[in-house]
Amino acid sequence: MRKEVRAWFGTWSDYRQEVEQMLDAGEDVVVVLRESGTGKGNGAPMDQRIGVVFTVRDELTIRQTLHREPEDALRPAGVTE
After folding, report:
1. Cα 4 from Cα 43, distance rounded (Å)
2. Taking 70 as the threshold, does the pLDDT of residue 63 lie above it?
3. What is the average per-residue pLDDT within 43-59?
4. How do beta strands 28-38 and 16-25 pair?
5. Position 17 pLDDT exceeds 90
6. Which pLDDT value is given to residue 75?
């Protein structure tokens, strides 16, 4: 996981994440993020919203699920945008 995260962050010259929404969904925490950056190799801009579901037990994250569409993360929690 660390290797993959480093590779992703290393792709961008100015990578940023901003939390747009966070909600408690029982043992899950649903987060909608806006991530943006500029590609190191080609200067291509990236600006997208994603959804991430963190499953938490005993105050530890035991699972993290990334959704390319924020609605896919929010829907199981009964939230629609």
Report:
1. 21
2. yes
3. 94
4. antiparallel
5. yes
6. 84
Lay out the sheet containing 28-38: strands in order across.
16-25, 28-38, 45-57, 60-67
**Sequence letter at residue 22:** M
One-letter-per-residue 3-state SS of the chain: CHHHHHHHHHCECCCEEEEEEEEEECCEEEEEEEEEEEECCCCCEEEEEEEEEEEEECCEEEEEEEECCHHHHHHHHCCCC
Contacts for 77 with CB less than 8 Å, ≥ 6 apart: 23, 25, 28, 30
- Give the tokens for residue 56: 């938490």
Question: 23-37 pLDDT, tens per residue?
Answer: 998 889 999 999 999
